[in-house]
Automatic annotation (TrEMBL):
The keyword NAD does not apply. Coiled coil: none annotated. It comes from the Bacteria. The lineage of its organism: Bacteria, Bacillati, Actinomycetota, Actinomycetes, Streptosporangiales. Residues 260-297 are annotated as: Disordered. This is Integral membrane protein. Residues 271-297 have a biased composition (Basic and acidic residues). The keyword Membrane applies. The chain crosses the membrane at residues 15-35, 56-76, 88-110, 122-141, 161-182, 189-207. Keywords: Membrane, Transmembrane, Transmembrane helix.
Amino acid sequence: MTEIFDQRIVATGRLPLFGFFVAFIVTFVLTRINVRLIRADVRWWFKNVKAGDLHIHHVVFGVVLMLVGGVASLAIPDSARALGPLNVAAAVVFGMGAALVLDEFALILHLSDVYWTEKGRASVDAVFVALAVTGLLLLGIRPFGFEGTDPDPGGTIGRTLFVGGYGASVVANLVLAVITLLKGKIWTGLLGLFVPALLIVGAVRVARPGSPWSRWRYDPDSRKYRRAVRREERFRRPLIRAKIWVQEFIAGRHDLIPPDLRQRKEHRKERREERREDRKGDRREERRERTGTKTPH
């Protein structure tokens, strides 16, 4: 294992990326454990960080850590980059901050505290995307097959053909990626940037029923739309249910009411019941007065 790690990670210069990857995973897992214990209102655990009545979300700490890690990485002189540990330390700090920020991605997206609502699942999706992309980069898979090397630095014709062919390939893959994303296949479009064959599959197959491509090009009575609906019900929905199960297993339920909000709702429900009973009593009293019946004492 040590030899494989040295060959695939250290020798290829991916040690900072590996540090980022590990720090990202560890920070995300610990953050979710922390917020789930806070949500369960465990007495011996920490509480939310507050400044007076202001709840300070952990995305704030994430932004600070990302700034520290990013600026530190830029500030490391080229002469010190060969030391390695400084680069790795900066990448680790940046990975910790990125995990905290993406864990509250839904709050940034909606500009609202939707962490434990159904919309909060967007944060877990963002984390999964970041892990998938980083994992592919760690394996040495580059978007569009880019390696960053010139196959023939001494040949002008060969270099020109290479650049022209690579540019055409990038444009074609981008077009396929846009079509795939418009068809509502987010994961296929993102992973297809690293595995272009997926883009061909995603662009050729029918779009998802609620996607922009479906709204623009599929008539509700068309054969393609009916086939898209059947495929959604047969394949996509079971996959979505499985994905939600994995999300909830890792990150907790996103459709449960937090304890404090549940108490407020129960209190409001009791108040409504009391007001309803008071109105019923008032109506009975009014009927007795109209019929001339005296209220018994």
